[in-house]
């Protein structure tokens, strides 16, 4: 029973983090209560590899089977 509660709380914390990121730092705004949280999220996302939306579609890899 305790493990289920912990898993649900972790899932809720992750969902709240995604919502806060989508509401503020993703749009370039500061988080209202703690700007440091937005800075940490932005640094974390900047360190991850992403695809360039302006990239040449001929050079973007397409998964096999399409």
TrEMBL record:
<protein>
    <submittedName>
        <fullName>Uncharacterized protein</fullName>
    </submittedName>
</protein>
<feature type="region of interest" description="Disordered">
    <location>
        <begin position="45"/>
        <end position="66"/>
    </location>
</feature>
């Amino acid at each position: 029973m305790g493990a289920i509660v912990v898993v649900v709380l972790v899932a809720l914390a992750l969902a709240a983090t995604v919502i806060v990121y989508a509401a503020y730092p993703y749009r370039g705004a500061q988080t209202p209560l703690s700007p440091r949280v937005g800075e940490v999220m932005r640094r974390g996302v900047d360190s991850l590899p992403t695809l360039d939306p302006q990239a040449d579609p001929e050079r973007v890899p397409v998964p096999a089977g399409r």
